[in-house]
From TrEMBL:
Pfam families: Methyltransf_21. This is Methyltransferase FkbM domain-containing protein. Gene3D superfamilies: Vaccinia Virus protein VP39. Residues 39-169 form the Methyltransferase FkbM domain.
Amino acid sequence: MLAQIFTAREYDAHPFWVTRLNVVASEIARAGGVPVIIDAGANVGYSALYLAEHFPDAVILAVEPDPACVRLIERNCTHHPRIRPVHAALWSHGHGVDLSAGDEGSWANRVSDGGATPSVTLDALLDGIAGAVPFIVKLDIEGAESEVCQASPEAIASFACIMIEPHDWMLPGSGGLAPLYDAVAGKKMDTLIRDETLMLFDCAVLEAHSHTQVHL
């Protein structure tokens, strides 16, 4: 996971999008809002650290259902007050889920409906921060992306950037990204494929801030 993020730089986008996104975040902050990054499937916090480094105006919610991983997020991110660990699984409701250990390590843990592990919705996360403005959402949640996007289509479509790891290879025939495509249907989106991650950029949001020159 460390090499995937910092060596392979899986969440790197073209400088055009990174620069424009930072313009968006800066203008949100100047207007008194809080640009929010939701890092769902944060594991031990490496992705949150990476996002904090590249988007310094944003608050990052590092959402992770595994309590052992949450403790590591707290330790790894202790010097980054803009990173806020959230012990929960991102899901379609807040009534709890069952956490199943992955065969290949904690990064492969999966959740299913019903259980004692805390769960939270996209809307609840945003409602928990005064002045929150959806900025970036990163979903690496081992197949739960379908459940999340189906339950919160308006919330998922409100982010300027969506980073998602598809898991149809793991769940063939599930159409795991269909709810995401439904949510953003009709929106003008730029698409970037970076290793295992699909990145979608809302062109309308980025164009609204196009008066600021972007140097490539």
